[in-house]
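FW: tagging you since you asked about this chain on Friday. Here's the raw sequence from the shared folder, copied in full. Didn't touch anything.
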Amino acid sequence: MTDTPMNQAMNPTKPSNANTSGMLRLFVYGTLKRGFWNHDRFCRGVLTVEDAVVHGRLFETSSGIPFLEVPDEDVIAIGTTNPLADVATQAHVAARMSNPEPTPDRLPKKGTGAPWGPVYGELLTFDDPENRLPAIDRLEGFHPGGPCLYRRVLVLAQAHGTVLPAWLYVVEVTSNRSFKPLPSGKWRS
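HL: got it, structure written out here
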């Protein structure tokens, strides 16, 4: 295997190639969680893993793969092909949130109607976004400007009572309800 940044992020035998370009927070709810098949391959070198929750609705395909929908009004930004710009956007949102001006608490929403609710997963923090995001984007079928399986969006996630902006992968809101809803908000606990 060639030692490109993408292959390095996907190679569990190589240590993380850390840089100081910024911290990436990624909310995961499926196969990238600890104990599942993509965690060791794509999340090696993670700095922290915390239980977290976002607002949305969770489904499972007939093949057992989860997917998440979030309300459009919860999307703060949409991912790009530039990992450093995306981390800068995340940092800018976090800085705005630390401003003493009051900001609305958006987790969890109440009274917006079923079936939006809490979705449980893990908040991962990485220090190598230039390697990490292209590898995970490819895994998730996220190709900005082209056809995508998932899209990467920035939303608010809550971990240990703290609300932080985090990237996650969602599908477009779909009217196809042949997928199995997971009303517990958890996939394979």
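FW: The beta strands are 24-28, 48-60, 66-69, 77-78, 117-126, 151-159, 162-170, 180-181.
HL: agreed, and The chain has one domain: 5-181.
FW: great, closing this out.
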